[in-house]
Amino acid sequence: MCGVLAACQRAPQALPQQAYIWQRQWSPAVAAAMQASDQLVRGWRVLAAELTSQRQWKTANPDWEALKTTQHAVVMVVRLDGQTDSLDAATQNHVTGMLARWKQQGVPVAGVEIDYDCPTSQLPAYRNFLTGLRQSLDRDTSLSITALPTWLNSPELSKLLAVTDESVLQVHAVMNPRQGLFDAERAQAWLKAYAKQTSHPWRVALPSYSTRVSWDDNGRISTVESERPLLASGNVAQELTASPTVVSAFLAQLDKDPSPGLVGVVWFRLPTEDDVRNWSQPTWQAVLARQPLKPAVTVEALATAQAGLHDLTLRNNGNADSALPLIVRIDAASACDAADGINGYALEADAQGKYLRRTREGLLRAGYQRNIGWAHCGQQHIQLHVEH
């Protein structure tokens, strides 16, 4: 017998992990990111096409060789705009036609996933569509869907989930700027409620990205800018981020005490060098590997060719993306007669002297740097101090 109860307890087992690949046009960076993360994930969920609210199909152009040679299972994801009502035979046939083309390319497709963020009132129609789609797929091809927390109070949700082989609960959402992109306490409550709605295996989608949200004068969301830049914007905008530290702690809790039926995590989305609104590869890999996160943000003044002029630069030499410092203070002894901020920082002053204040939230990715301003000073060596 064990002398100490703690010594008898098994260490938590890390939940299996997959990742969404959400690019319509693949760059070489996508295949490179897949290869770099190959040992940390067990499957890829790959965007194949999107059906817009105007009933137009936008088809992805993936790297077939990268998908064909992967050692992991591939789920083909079809996104239907939440405002579309095209849940008809034509849409079903389009999905099965794409599946056939993917298999002809040699992609090891294990399943099809439908991503349809519809209003709760549409769940019965959605269930009917999925019933027909399930019947058109062979039994070796699984059918999954993404599910929204807003559906949790509907009696239709359990009926919808009964049609599918598995599902993925999204716990990242833009609802309230004060709650951010991901709220761990709220997400945990959603998981517990969702586990009671389905008897089939399910996964949870966790965020690694940031998004810029704009609101109109009435407080309604006007634009959400994430993986693709948008030209339109509202009067008020805010950058919402998924903190690596917060998400890592949430993941540790999932490993320790998974909800009934929870069989894994799906990350949204695979970070690449091209994806500026995502965690860095080192940070993402550290979180997936359950490694300690250690950001190391420093600030320095770099002399320019012009006498007395310095660029003020933040650097992150750690393995974890870090929130941008709130304040970077310029020491009064540096005798700076002029300065200004850029890239999300503005110059201000108080009794202690000049400082750069962060004007919008964001992350400084591991291994990256950001120029946040300049200063013209009488001294060669400028003293700078970071305040979080």
TrEMBL record:
Pfam families: DUF3142. It comes from Herbaspirillum hiltneri N3. It comes from the Bacteria. This is DUF3142 domain-containing protein.
